[in-house]
Amino acid sequence: MLKIKKYLLVGGSFFLPFLLLAILWFSLGLAPLGNNNLLVSDLGTQYMPFLSAFKQFFQGETYSLYSFSDALGGTILPLSAYYLLSPFNLFVLLFSYEQLPIAILLIITLKISLMGSSMFYYLQKTYQRSTVATLLFSTSYSLCGFVTVYCLNFMWLDALILLPLLILGIQRLWDQQKYVLYSVALFLSIVTNYYMGYMLCIFAVCYSLYWYYQKTDASKKKSIWQFLKEGRLFFVTSFLTGISTSFILIPAVEGMLATKKTNFEWQTFLPTPNFGFSFLSQLGLGSVNFEWRLEHLPTIFSGILMVLLFITYFQLSAISKKEKIGAAFLVGFIFLSFWLELVNTIWHMFQSPAGFPYRNTFIFSFLMIKFAYEAFLKLKDGAKLTFIVPSIFSGLLLFGYIALKFSKEKIFLLSDYYVVISLVSIWLTFGLVVLIQKRRGSKINGLYMILFLVVCSELVFNFWISFKDIPFGNQEKFAQTYQIQDKIISDLQNEHPQLFRIKQTIDSDAAGYNEKNNGYNNPILYGYAGVSSYTSTLDAKTQDTLHALGLYQKNDRRIAYVDESKVINLLLNVNYQLTPEVKSHQKNISSDPSTNVYENEEAIGMGFLVSKEFGDLKLVKNQPLKNQEMILQQIQENKQGYFQETQKVAWTAQADHHYTLTTKTTTDGELYLYAPEFNWKKITSFRVNGEKIQPAVYIATNQLFNLGYFKKDAVVQLQLESEKELEEKAIELKTLQQETFHSFITKQKSQAIQLEEEVLGTLTGKITVTDSENSLLYLAIPYDKNWQITVDGKKVKAKSVLGNFTGIELTSGKHQITMHYQQRNFIVGVLISISVLLSVLFYQLIKYVRRRKSK
């Protein structure tokens, strides 16, 4: 009977948060309980497309570790290490692609519910006492402030499931010399998300220090040296477990070093405070909503009851001074980790977070609930909850709200009503706990039910506040658009087996998004070779190269192909454009009325022959039109030039920062605008001949604009409205000569190579070199030392050309090119991981044999 009760309680720790979330999802109308979905923020632009790639990998025909869907192409391991290694992601295999938002909601729900189970298990095993009331503590952990604000970044939630198990493992290691639970929890923490795993590694050392000093005999000599000496098992286990994750850690570090995350800002290493007393306001309800998800105070909300009991912990005489000091030091250090910018930066892998600050606050909530539970057990044993506790809590909360109201962070104050509700909840909870202590028999069950109702309502209400203003996506529209786009792309890929790239634009509303959907990761979502990308693992050299050619770079994590460019289509082999816009000078080959498909004749292949001097070209920063002209001239010299400047007629400034630039074209072709001095954030309106220019991507910084096709001597009028004064300087307006460029393409087609992608990502193609002057094969593939390249069966070395593309030197005659991607560091990592595993197994076998012999 006792076992059944234990199982019921463990089950309850999962199903209680699950039920509360189901009620919340239903109230918000989230699919499948409604038609809303969570295609917002990074979840809609990053995580959902990445899960689509995850599903494609397991259900596709290729199992290559290289993908052409991620920017221009790259290894999938760094991206997988950060986003995709949670075992929960396997649930997406049970859903169709258009149902991915529903699968994500299920994953989030399961992760949050399992947090309750792992926390309950920790409390049960640590204190050997668990009742129905324990569910209040495990559920408070499940629905703590960190979860309500950061659950859309659901790849971080595995760490919250593993944290209680990790801490339980540390306790067993120090108390019983048993290391299996700790080792497994630490291994999973690093593998599922090395970023959060890094934080848990730091905390594992902190908690080990706490546990060692708390549990060792008072008469025993204590010192750091003694801790290191007695903690040999802890440190050896930690080291070997860390090394055993090399199979994913080494490629992840290699990928990280290739991004711009290696750039350090010295200001983030100053010991400056990040916030003041306004921090105390976060102990109450309604501290953060969707609008302030990127910038806010630390999300330490853990429930009114938890804070009440946490304060009680330091008030009870039944708890020793030694325990209180230990708890204060541990909680204080975690508080320091997000209060001081220096420590906060170290905790975040030496990089100050770009949005979503204080990502380790869940550890603070865990400790608050842990010590609250210890106080609860003392109250059950007869200790009294005094009037001073809710008074202190109310005072701290009011002080925090007043400090917030009169500080620079006052914008974070959502509503004064939430202050009142929090104060009422404090005294109501206090009253219920006091009554429970005084009552006996059946009446106590009714009071516990009321307490459960109050705590659960408060947790759901706080969650609802953070979610209610989310601009939810439309699941029905998303599913319809996905099916249409997927069919168009599949038909194109089936029609042309060679490797080519696509530029795809989808209207945000049609795609089921309520906020602006920039479509950076559409190539990953739909599984085609693209150009745009938005990931934390974006290769810095590739990004710089594309930006130099004219692509839009908002920040270190984004690159976007916004406006069409014929030269870029040539260089990157962008064969098709999918767009809702109508292009009058091009033929639409789509049969679907919602999407126009245009074939780019300038996309002649994934590479072509150029002169050897082409390999010496250096792209100039922030001069894309100059770079494009230089590239075309190097391939085929043209004395007149490929780009022709327009004839400037007039620049006029009207009132209220309204400006008009009138110009006349000097040739037939597409007209390009580059204005590096303009602050596009401040441009409120941009029209060309009265027609509004509305890029598919939100433009915050500079980029190369394609203003459309114009005949020679056409008068073009640019109208700009700005929030600030504009000056006419450094404005480039140039037309790419249609006939000259067409002749260029016709001649270059005979020197192009078509690559076909085979199983396991091997690329093959044939090329004939007829002119020894043009014997360098330029490939529209990012340079990577992991490419194994053979020409006619003989291994050759490639070199980096034109920024970060691949160049192969050839001799005259016909050649068979084969490229196979083999990530050496991944193989090294796998060998290290296997070696550690075999070594530990061998050591355990020797121990077992010796034990048998001694018996």
The structure class reads alpha+beta
Largest sheet: 5 strands, antiparallel
Radius of gyration, rounded?
Answer: 31 Å
How many E-type strands? 28
Shape: globular
Give the % helix.
Answer: 40-55%
Stretches where pLDDT is under 50 for at least 5 consecutive residues are none
Portion in strands: 5-15%
Q: Please tally the helical runs, counting DSSP H or I stretches of 4 or more residues.
A: 26
pLDDT averaged over residues: 92
Cα end-to-end separation: 38 Å
- Numbering strands along the chain, what is their spatial order in the largest sheet? 20-10-23-27-26
Task: Provide structural commentary.
Pfam families: YfhO. This is Bacterial membrane protein YfhO. Keywords: Membrane, Transmembrane, Transmembrane helix. InterPro entries: Uncharacterised_YfhO. This protein is α+β, with helices and mostly antiparallel strands and about 850 residues long. Among the domains are: about 270-440, no CATH class; about 475-605, no CATH class; about 645-745, Immunoglobulin-like; about 755-820. The chain has a 5-stranded antiparallel β-sheet with strand order 20-10-23-27-26, with no helix packed on it. A 5-stranded antiparallel β-sheet has the order 12-13-18-15-16, with no helix packed on it. A hairpin with a 2-residue loop joins strand 15 (about 685-690) and strand 16 (about 690). The radius of gyration is 31 Å and the shape is globular. The two termini are about 40 Å apart.
